[in-house]
Amino acid sequence: MHSLQCVLQAQKSLRWGPLAAMSWLLLRTCRAHSSLPTSASPSPERQENGVRKDFSSRLATGPTFQHFLRSTSAPQEKPSSPEAEDPPPYLTEEELLGRQRKVYLETYGCQMNVNDTEIAWSILQKSGYLRTRNLQEADVILLVTCSIREKPEQTIWNRLHQLKTLKTKRLRSRVPLRIGILGCMAERLKEEILSREKMVDLLAGPDAYRDLPRLLAVVESGQQAANVLLSLDETYADVMPVQTSPSATSAFVSIMRGCDNMCSYCIVPFTRGRERSRPVASILEEVRKLSDQGLKEVTLLGQNVNSFRDNSEVQFNNSVSTNLSHGFTTNYKTKQGGLRFSHLLDQVSRVDPEMRIRFTSPHPKDFPDEVLQLIQERDNICKQIHLPAQSGSSRVLEAMRRGSDLLGEGTSYTFPCFFNDKYSREAYVELVHHLRESIPGVCLSSDFIAGFCGETEEDHQQTVSLLREVQYNTGFLFAYSMRQKTRAYHRLKDDVPEEVKLRRLEELITVFREEASKANKTSVGCTQLVLVEGLSKRSVTDLCGRNDGNLKVIFPDAEVEDGINPGLKVRAQPGDYVLVKITSASSQTLKGHVLCRTTLKDSLAYC
Prior knowledge:
single chain; disordered N terminus; TRAM_dom
């Protein structure tokens, strides 16, 4: 076997320009010299491109460590576009082209991964790759992965075992099948994936998607290739995501990447890096294009979406302090200046008054009054807020580093005490009351973790009581899964037995459903504006859509009055707004009968 080759590469945002900090880029060979294709026995790809100079010899005589040091010695202008960049010294421009090879993309995990899939495909499409939805005809299979808990990772390992058969049974007359792992799992496990699963050819972390054409070119030479460099400035601001569903009525728009909160249970800062925000202008351009395409809803995305801060324009980098929610502080030094989330939300909502605006996932600390006032005032900003609590116990929040400025005197701790705290249960409940006063009728959703390190039955019951007190419309509840590299992994003990975690989780789910049913039943008898998404998955005679609170609404597919063109009757289509009178409700779904097709503006007279 070749020895492990590590090239210390200086880049900036995965470019060949300078980088503030040097980072490792791994290239691992997986074939012996004797097994590499030769001109006497050409592989299919060599046949189509002619005899190529042996890649391994080019790499051996290619750029040295000193080459990369020299490239960082003098500042260089950032290329205006990826097309302006020169290829790496050991690859030709032709070798970076996809040559119409077919790529199959599978997405696992959160909405950010959906958006990452669209970014990765946009980059590959421009390099000459084709997209396929047929696994059997794929030349490249890329899995966009999640690492937030152990279960999503196990899903990927299982999927790789399934794909192994596909790869080994590949006909020799076809180009070799290449398999890549993208996203958070690649970033967390790095070379462990390549060592454990020899069938994996490629790894690309969340900040390395620009590098996919190069990585795939390296892979075609018989190497394993990986780029898991985390960037301080990569936002893909100049990459226009390609919508993966041509019939979509909504889209995700990434406005920032990474997270600085460093909650003790969370792997995100280690898989997606530090917070950095896209320039407002690039976000508005993307939203305008989505509006021009006829989409009726955009969701602004970020790991800590409402801490958005665009520092790209010097005139706004002043010393104005950041406003936080009352009773909340941060785990880091308070940041100043830049265009904040309220400015972005204001500008995005003005692009198209008929386009709904949502955002996720926010942090409770970043809800100053100017954001709440904007949500209340703008008709096209949905009156729905995701407000992750994680626990109803101030003691557990402290251990999670979601904290407590308001813990009473004399509180005893079994956890290390962290002094840069964020919030307590009391501060969280106060924020909930403030939200409901500021935005009448607002729908709330939340995240909860059952069985975090050291959680007692009393702590658990406090979470149960918070669920009953707040009465969320939607909830995302999970048993705690310890992740390596996190603060909890290094400083706390995962001491709640698995069966106790699962029992507590079931109790939380039961209570959540009871309270959500109560909250949702208040909509019965009301008329609500619904954005039609398509046919119901459970009935071909019903349509489904989402209301302002992001709850699923089911209603019959029938001819209705057309409020846009009076006197006509129409059947609602995906992307239409319809008025639906709610007749029944459960913890997850509303049902009703459709009244008419309408517009967002005209619906205000009825809702």
